[in-house]
Prior knowledge:
There is one protein chain. By secondary structure, the protein is mostly helical. Helix 2 runs antiparallel to helix 3. The chain starts with 8 loop residues before the first helix and ends with a helix. It has one domain. About 70% of the residues lie in helices and about 0% in strands. The protein contains five helices and no strands. The radius of gyration is 20 Å and the shape is elongated.
Amino acid sequence: xxxxxxxxxxxxxxxxxxxxxxxxxxxxxxxxxxxxxxxxxxxxxxxxxxxxxxxxxxxxxxxxxxxxxxxxxxxxxxxxxxxxxxxxxxx
Length: 91
């Protein structure tokens, strides 16, 4: 699917002064919002933006303040840390 955006010339110029590649910035903005709202998976985000690795997706998300760290992930990390500390205490 192809999407065309109509922008007033002065707004387009202002945006291009901030983002040199306005079409890329537009697709990245759309992709980020779709990912944040759970309309896209990380695999779909990777395909849409043409990234070759999951690591590149993670870097992109971190650069834009989007973190895939849930409360369950935090609890799992806490439990792992607790187990490691208990193991160290035994030695």
